[in-house]
Amino acid sequence: MSERQNIEWKQSWHDDYLKWICGFANAQGGTIYIGKDDDGNVTHLDNYQKLLEDLPNKIRNAMGIICDVNLQEESGSKYIEIKVQPYSVPVSLRGRYYYRSGSTKMELTGVELNEFLLKKAGKTWDDVIEERASINDIDTNSLEQFIQDGLKYGRMPDVDGLSTFQILEKLNLIEKGQLKRAAIILFAKDPNKFYPSIQVRIGRFVKDSTDLRFHEILEGNLVYLLKEVQAQLNYKFLTKRIEFEGMRRLEKDEYPIVALREMLLNALVHRSYMGAHTQMRVYDDRISLWNVGKLPNELTEADLLKPHSSLPRNPIIAHACFLAGYIDTWGSGTLKIIEACKKEGLPEPVIKEMQGGMEVTMFKLGASEQATQQVTQQVTQQVTQQVTQQVQTLLEAIGTELNRKDLQEKLGLADRENFRANYLQPALELGLVEMTIPDKPKSSKQKYRLTEKGKDLKQTLK
């Protein structure tokens, strides 16, 4: 049995491990074994009797939850099992919230905390009633455009003869006679009156991100932005490339329309509306789009490059956009971008999680390999800002595959828990270091090596 999503081993007890219990309670539950080393071997607890008496009270007093604390024995050695059940309500430890993701514990703050608390209440951000809004805030022209788009795909329910209120009700955008936030995002006359970051800012840059030539700020609901952003790109920011077939002159788009549309839809549908505005940067050789909102815990960057499940941050907005034919519900948005670029012979796009959000970058036909490498380097530098000095030290220490003991000795660290919490685990979470035996994390033969991302960062640091 290895350490994983719902299993944690600790050689001895420290009150700091209450955070792990809190994380299990807020996620899928789990078990912490006190008296086992990193390889899962029982090390025996001399103070097991006192822990059996103290731990239930510590847990109840700190978090208000009840856990099973059981004494176990193996070959005459005692260890303790703490079984944590998942809780349907949010559990806090001294006012802080923790969550178990994979084999790591993380503290929830800001937007992530807000979304977590809503999820525990059976809600998502877009499913909440906006008490300040009324039906008069809805732009009927945008709603009509939305309906016409949906009728083309045959997904739209029958709304013929219904009032604006009845249509929104049928689209699940009204609750208890009041508009939901999703209705504001999709159809409001002025959504910025309610949420000030409902903007798409487009900038034309030369050479690098600091050399701005001109820009446009577009404000409006999702239906409006979906149409207007593409119009502004064609009118002011992008040019047509010219090709000839015999004597016939052909104008072709710099970037596939399908890919641009998917980039924009991903940003508008899946972004966090509690954060910054959406930003689009147009360069001589590439175009990038960034929106605030990290990937769900269940997805990684690598998952976006292959078929994956659809896990929308805003499911009410996403469902409405599905009915209108704007998106599918199969997690295929990023794949459409990749395939569209491939079909046009463009370089492979770069899709990265960065600065609390997601960025997609597409390159022009004929964009040099140097330009592609430059963008990759910029992303690497942005990742560097998230790397602590301890992690940088660890990267410098890893030349070949090394086990935990050798790494600790090389770094001059005697405390295993300090090494694991401040050096190894953050490097693993950032994707800079990987295990040689990933399916057996606590194998006695386990070693660690740099990933390609880690190697690139190490070279950058030099």
From TrEMBL:
Record-annotated membrane-spanning stretches: none
Chain ranges of the Filamentation induced by cAMP protein Fic-like C-terminal domain: 389-451
Segments forming domain Schlafen AlbA-2: 3-108
Chain intervals with Basic and acidic residues compositional bias: 449-462
Top-rank taxon: Bacteria
InterPro entries: Fic-like_C, RecG_C_sf, Schlafen_AlbA_2_dom, Schlafen_AlbA_2_dom_sf
Chain positions covered by the region annotation Disordered: 441-462
Protein name: Transcriptional regulator
Organism expressing this protein natively: Siansivirga zeaxanthinifaciens CC-SAMT-1
